[in-house]
Amino acid sequence: MQTLIRSVLALQNGTLQSVDVLLVDQHIRTVAPAGTIPVAPHQQVIPGEDRLLLPGFVNGHTHSSQVWQRGLIPQLPLELWLANVFDSTPRQLDQFYWGAVSTALDTLLSGGTGLIDHAYVIPGQELETVDALVRGYKAVGIRAVIAPLIQDLPFASGLPKGCLLPQSASPRSAADLLALMEAIIAEFHDPNNGIYIGVGPTGFHRCSDELLAGCGEISDRLNLCYHTHLLETRAQQRLAQERYGISAVQHLQNLGCLTPRTSLAHGVWISEADIALLASVGSTLVHNPVSNLRLGSGLAPVLKCLQAGLNVAIGCDGAASNDAQNMLEAIKLGTILHTVTDSDYENWLTPEQAVQMAAVGGAKAANLGDRTGTLTPGMDADLVLYNLDHPSMLPRTNPLQLLVLGRPTDVVEAAWVRGRQLVDQGQVLTVDTAAMHHHLRYQAFTAKASQVQHHPVEAHYRDVMLNR
Ligand SMILES: [Zn+2]
How much of the chain exceeds pLDDT 90, in percent? Predict the structure, then answer.
C-alpha cells in the first residue's frame, strides 16, 4: 500500500516548507521537496495544497474511563475531587470499551495519533477491563499505551497525616499486583498491533516501595513504559516530606524507578533539584495544564524543565478533571500559561516548541521515540493532515501559530496511524460514532444520579491543608 501526499506544508528544520511525502505500508518512505516524487500506478494520491501535515501528537496522560464523568465532578482540589471520582467510577465493562473509543476519537480529531491511558481497572476484573480497553483501541486503530492504575496503600494514606483517618480495607499486596501485571503483559502487550502495556503505579502517595520498585524491575526487564503520577499537589509534596524526609523524585531514583522509559504526570511541585535529576536520567514530565488549573493544583515549572533539558510532553488528563479530551486545547494552554512565570519573553514557548513537546515529547513519554513523533523517513506513518481552508484557520497568516494559539475547530481532515488511514474528510473511518454517541447518551443519566459533593475526608483536608 502506497500513499503519496503531494505539495503539503510541513515543518522541516524549524520552518514550514512545501513537500511531497510518500508512505509505504506502515512507514514514512520519503520526504522530498514538493513536486519531486513521481506518481506511481496503484498509489493513493492526496492533494496537499492548502493543507498542513504534522506528526501526530501523543496524549501523554489520560484516564479513559473518566469519559463517563465529564461534566460531573464539582470544582474541588485533587484530594477531594478524587474522593468524588472513586464514588462515581464506571463499573461495567462496556463502559470501558466505549470510554476507550471516545478517548481515541477525541484524540484523533484534535491531532493525536497515540495516547497513554493510565487506566482504572475494575478490582477483581482487571484482565477483563484491560481486554475491553484493548478492544476499544483496536477498533479505532489508534496507538495506545495502557498502564493499569495499581496501588497497595489505602486511599487515606495518600493524604498528609492520613494515618489519623479511619483506614479502608487494604488493597491487594504488592506481590499480587506485580503478578497481575505480568499476566496482563503476557496477554495484551502487542506492539505489532500498536497496543502496548505499561506499568502504572498510581503514584508514590498510594504505593509501597516494594510496588514502585517492582514496577521498575518489570519496566527494565521488558522495556515497558513506566508511567506514574508525581507531585501533582502541594498535599503530595507535604506527604513526601512526611513519609520519606526527602524529595519524592529522589526517593523514586533511590528505588530505581527513573529511566528514559519513565514518564511522570504533572510534577507541579517539583523543585529545581528534582528537575536536574529528572533531566540527568532522561525521564519525561507530562504537563497537564487544563487539569492542573481545573483542580487548582498549580503551574508546573515547564520553562525551567525545558531549559534544564528535561523532556516535556503534553496530556489532557482524564475527562473528570478536564471535561474534554482536546489535545489542541491542552497544547494552547500549555504554551501560553507559562508567560506569567517568566518575565523574560525570550524564554516563552513558540508554536514550534509546543508541537515538538506534543509530538516528539509525547512519543518519548510513551517509550516510543524510535517509532513515532517525527515526519522522518523510516519512522511509522503517524500523521495528521489539517485543513487550512477551514474558517477557523483563516486568514492565511502563520498556519502553525494559528493551529496552536488560535481556536481551531474541525480542522483535522485526515489522520494515519502506522500507515493506516483512520480519518478521511474529518470522519473516523473505523468505528460507528453514532453507536458511541448512543451509549454515551444512554449511560449519562446513571452517572448523574451518583453525583456527590461532600466526602468524609473533607474535614481532614480542610484541617490539614487550609487551617495552618
Ligand atoms: Zn491522572
Answer: 87
Band (pLDDT 50/70/90 cuts) for residue 55 is very high
How many Å lie between the centroid of ligand 1 and the Cα of residue 61? Answer: 6
Query: Domain segments of the chain: what residues?
Result: 2-54+374-428, 57-365
Q: What spacing in Å lies between the alpha carbon of 118 and ligand 1's midpoint?
A: 7
133's grid cell: 480497553
pLDDT at 452 over 70: no
Q: What is 57-365's CATH superfamily?
A: Metal-dependent hydrolases (3.20.20.140)
The rounded Å distance from CA 62 to ligand 1 centre is: 6
From 14, 13, 429, 18, select the one nearest 5 (Cα to Cα): 18
Q: What average pLDDT score do residues 25-50 get?
A: 96
Give me ligand 1 centre to Cα 453, in Å. Answer: 20
Question: Hey, what amino acid is at 403?
Answer: L
Ligand 1 mean position, distance from CA 342 (Å): 26
Ligand 1 midpoint to CA 459 (Å): 24
Residue 415, helix vs strand vs coil: strand
Instruction: Evaluate whether 97 touches 132 at the Cβ level (below 8 Å).
Output: yes
**Which CATH superfamily, name and number, covers 2-54+374-428?**
Urease, subunit C, domain 1 (2.30.40.10)
Which amino acid is it at 362?
G
380 Cα to the center of ligand 1, angstroms: 28
Q: How far is the CA of 318 from the centre of ligand 1 (A)?
A: 6
Question: What's residue 456's pLDDT?
Answer: 75
Least confident of 157-171, 256-270, 316-330: 157-171
Residue type at 282 in one-letter notation: G
CA 39–ligand 1 middle distance (angstroms)? 46
In the reported structure, the alpha carbon of residue 348 is separated from the centroid of ligand 1 by a whole-number distance in angstroms of: 26
Q: Note the Cα 264 to chain centre separation in Å.
A: 10
Residue carrying the nine cell digits 478536564: 322
Report the sign of the C-alpha dihedral through residues 452, 456, 461, 467, in that order. Answer: positive
Distance 291 CA to ligand 1 centre (A): 9
Q: b/e for 278-287, b at 16 or more Cβ within 10 A?
A: bbeeebbbbb
